[in-house]
Amino acid sequence: MRFSYQAEKFSSARSALMLPHTGGEHESIAGAFHEISLALHQFDRSKLDDNATTWVRKLDALMDTTGLSDPNKEGLWAVKAKTLSDDDKIELSHVVDELAHWFDHAEI
Questions:
Q1: Cα separations (Å) of 26 from 43, 48, 76, 90?
Q2: Alpha helices in 1-40 (DSSP H)
Q3: Which has the least CB within 10 A, 3, 31, 44, 98?
Q4: What gap in Å lies between CA 108 and CA 9, rounded to an integer?
Q5: pLDDT at 93 exceeding the cut of 80
Q6: If pLDDT is split at 50, 70 and 90, which confidence band does 19 have?
Q7: What is the pLDDT of residues 31-72, one digit of tens each?
Q8: Is the alpha carbon torsion for 12, 18, 21, 26 positive or negative?
Q9: C-alpha to C-alpha distance for 2 and 20, rounded to whole angstroms
Q10: pTM of the full predicted structure?
Q11: What Cα–Cα distance (Å) separates residue 66 from each residue in 38, 63, 82, 93, 101?
């Protein structure tokens, strides 16, 4: 499989978003953000189809920490996770699930 690393990381991100959230929901979301960042780090996005490109752009927007501060040193992604609306969390879960499936089933 040509996207096995990305499939593994998005599967881990999907798992992080599942219940229970023993460290708190924001920590689970921050963990998912970390897995997503690993999956997409130095990844050639030109290999994505139109749907996957749209999903990745949505993730970029959901994960954007521009303008946030972290005075309590909990991590910018944890701070960002606390700012997400319920609709954002639903979209995040949906997009991560779609990309986990896409990377798992992308043709070789």
A1: 26, 29, 11, 14
A2: 4-16, 25-40
A3: 44
A4: 18
A5: yes
A6: confident
A7: 999 999 999 999 999 999 999 999 999 999 999 999 999 999
A8: positive
A9: 32
A10: 0.91
A11: 19, 9, 14, 21, 29
